[in-house]
Amino acid sequence: QLHRRGFRCLHGVDGSAGMLEQARSTGLYQELRLCVLGTEPLPAPAEHYDAVTVVGALGEGQVPSTVLPELLRVTKPGGFLCLTTRSNPSNLRYKAELEAALGQLERSGAWQKLLAQEVEYWERATTEEESTQGTGYISGVVYIYQKCPVPCLEEG
């Protein structure tokens, strides 16, 4: 999907050497680096990327929401950030904390929210307690932001 939309130079980071090896085996990435998000700075200069994505890592016990300024640091002005989190019961506290941090950065003028979309069938649940209304799936949210400075859209 990213290639079809013009993103051809893909870099990836992960805190697990094993996951980096799996990513390397796909042949999709031009660069892969070991990095623990939220603990270490990203191995990239400021304002380097047109788009930054974090999928499947923003959750309870994983990447802390304090990583957001670092994600912004490596994104070019006018660039995009696509982030996801789960909406299952064990992640609700984290999701609220993440959304508070997202909102604070938006109010400060660091970025503009373009989308916050709930996805009902995000991934298969591993327990019935985590399942959304007995569907066997966990719901989630996709957030898309654009880094300022860009002209902010007028409300209304």
UniProtKB/TrEMBL annotation:
Record GO terms (molecular function): S-adenosylmethionine-dependent methyltransferase activity
Listed Pfam families: Methyltransf_11
Database matches in Gene3D superfamilies: Vaccinia Virus protein VP39 (3.40.50.150)
Annotated InterPro entries: Methyltransf_11 (IPR013216), SAM-dependent_MTases_sf (IPR029063)
Signal peptide region: none
Domain Methyltransferase type: 4-82
Name of the protein: MET27 protein
Species the sequence originates in: Mohoua ochrocephala
